[in-house]
Amino acid sequence: MDGTFVANGAESAEMPCHHASVTTAARLGAGAGIPSPLRVLLVDGQELLSRGLRLLLDQEHDIEVVGEAGDGRAAERVVAERLPDVVLLRRGHASRAVGEVCRRLKSLLPTTRIVLLTEGAKLSAAEFAEVAVSTGADGQVPRDSPVDDVAAVIRAVANRDAA
After folding, report:
1. Integer distance in angstroms from the first to the last C-alpha of the chain?
2. What pLDDT, on a 0 to 100 scale, did the predictor assign at position 22?
């Protein structure tokens, strides 16, 4: 396996590539003026945990997990193909430095927001500010948080609120 798990039930390498200028505002529901669900990419080298988080997030009415990637390179492919609004990136995954991964993802799709899944307790505001400056991340959530908290952070970051 090359680090790509699945994107909507299929290997992401088989998904069509779309132009990366689509924005959340451009994806409104058919005539109803209701935004489409927030499109989320999960990046975590532990497939079992990633798939478990996917199952939980898929129960949220306004969140759609559009793919899973096991490392930064696979995440780049899925970002280019699936155009997520938010990327949940496990801080400390071993494939590349988190800052480099964040910068590359944002260079591919500048409108995407990145939430770091942190190990242990949530970083203080000062600690996260330092991490955000060095990585380009937009929010954080401890990896052991309840799914409601993870979903709330996804929504806040997608709305450009501090998280």
Report:
1. 33
2. 38
